[in-house]
Fold Phenylalanine-4-hydroxylase.
Amino acid sequence: MTASEPQRVERQQTDKGYVPVYTTAVVEQPWASYSRTDHQTWATLFQRQREVLKGRACREFIENQERFQMAPNAIPRFDDLNEVLAKATGWQLVGVEGLLPELVFFDHLANRRFPVTWWIRKPEQLDYLAEPDLFHDLFGHVPLLLNPVFADYMEAYGKGGVKAHGIGAEALVNLTRLYWYTVEFGLIRQDDGLRIYGSGIVSSKGESIHCLESPAPNRIGFDLKRIMKTRYRIDTYQKTYFVIDSFDQLMDATRPDFRPIYAELAEQPSIPAGDVLATDAVFNRGTGEGWAKDGDV
Ligand code: PHE
Ligand code: FE
């Protein structure tokens, strides 16, 4: 889940299939209405990613994912997951129809509520979907909400979002890039090598392999201001991944007041998604193989 512009098309399951609706309210998970196909889609993706992520996802993701004891062949019930979350870090999942206006999204996070899209993709969309669905939100984002440091980071991000929203559109762009390159597409360096923690990666088989094993992308050490200036990809694999050493590093780096940082960055140009700078701590310089020439957002 990320935020989007207000008025974005969302959808609802009806007897005509999924049709657009415009609510940004919290909705009850309509668990009894999931079809056999929906459960099967979950099962296929769940079992496939559990295999792909062995040795690729970070320790914290794998261990916390297991704590939920999700059945492999049925869509989990938010109520069951919420019992585990409540005891561990006080986070709570709330059902939503889809992408939310930024301020609504930030307000949820600031109050330790994570919005989860209730509907799941169709069987022909197993490998790619242009917007978050249940599998991305639940499988990708929820495990790390059991990690105390990451749980605090997500709340701090929500509060920072409310604040940035009051500052202006440019501040929001800077903050969104931080979310993109950490929460959605972050890598972490562990004892045995680079590992994945970003939810946009863990919910994608192709990108789980690509981000670690392909020679194409850059892998660069975390640098807050650098990330806040860096454009990104929404329709291809990332050209650059940023690597943290620990969730504590992420928490410490983002603790300061961002106001002066937003003001400083407003004077500076953005950085194309694939550029490597002389000041970067480079783990791997990408070959750029297969990169689209334009389309950075
Ligand atoms: N420290 C940030 C601010 O003052 C808030 C924040 C925390 C933003 C963590 C992102 C992540 O705006
Ligand atoms: Fe997401």
